[in-house]
Amino acid sequence: MGAHLLPLLLSLLAAAVAGKSAHLKLPLLRTHPFPPTPSQVLSSDASRLCSFNRRRARLPITSGASSGSGQYFVELHLGTPPQRLSLVADTGSDLVWAACSACRNCSTRLPHSAFFPRHSASFSAFHCFHPRCGLLTNPTRVPCNRTRLHSPCRYEFSYSDGSLTGGFFATETTSFNDSSGKAVRFKKVEFGCSFRSSGPSITGPSFSGAQGVLGLGRGPISLSTQLGRQLGNKFSYCLMDYTLAPTPRSYLVIGDGKDGAVVKTFTPLINNSFSSTFYYIGIESITVEEVKLPISPSVWTIDELGNGGTIVDSGTTLTFLAKPAYDGILTEFKRRIELPEPANLTSGFDLCINVSGGSKPRLPSLSFRFAGGAVFTPPAGNYFLDTAPDVKCLALQPVASPSGLSVIGNLM
Active-site residue 161, yes or no? Predict the structure, then answer.
């Protein structure tokens, strides 16, 4: 991608609540160059998508933590006095959790590898009989003693690769440094204090040094829901072109985030009673070079079992589309791109072009029209990925239809 590319601004209207102007603008950080190898991108995305499609069977949750690519992080401070942590921002899960240590006599110079609740005066674990404990989608099946004072709400979550994290569901004072550097503090933010974590998804190199996951889903315990009650029930994120030097900063905005210089468009969210976490949106049509593709509206529908539909997900890198839509785009692109010479296919990608030397083929435009009239026309660098020197491949993947889940990833 070149320096001319525009950032992606994606705004999600979480609820029709108006009248609040306050907002929280947080930098989204990266800890390593992006992306890793194409095979790593495909492998991690495929695993995540598989778990999404199985989620309705109440199988293990998956988070952006399980993806070794395309991760964005938010820095925050937990506790009193505050302890700095870095969490993976994930719109595909609800639980906010941080790695915790039970150390009682640790040095006052605390490392950033975990949160130390014993060093915080504001940490408070929920009792297992507390109504909020019942909001956890998969709490550990531990008998609850209603009379004991110290019977904390325990949870354990598993990930698609068998990784596990578990601990106590609690509240804590949480502060963020906004884009101006000002500390903004919130009391009694609900989060999981994980004393046990195992497996490559959340302890290996793919976790990139993060200490937990910042759940931003639509459920009642996600950070966007908790803070949204105070900040107008809206949030958005803006993912900037990662190839620019210096790399411009990406942002997560909770609240209205009013900016007169930015024109925003909105699309209503769709409810799926089988998957309350995800941000479902409606696709009305797709065009290539302003030519509308003949895609049946049924391709995008959610069936009576909750299958299908389209979500926006910060933890998936590539974009996955129902096969009829993918096939239509692929056919039209092959017809329109004047290939200078065939490029060897990068494994897992169906369309690759050779851009060596002076050969710079013009890449067709691609537009999505969403419900409500919003039109999204990303720059070509958002859907063509550099997979090897002088080789670009179409960064889209097909999913089985009619019941496959389409996912708009963070590269798009």
Answer: no
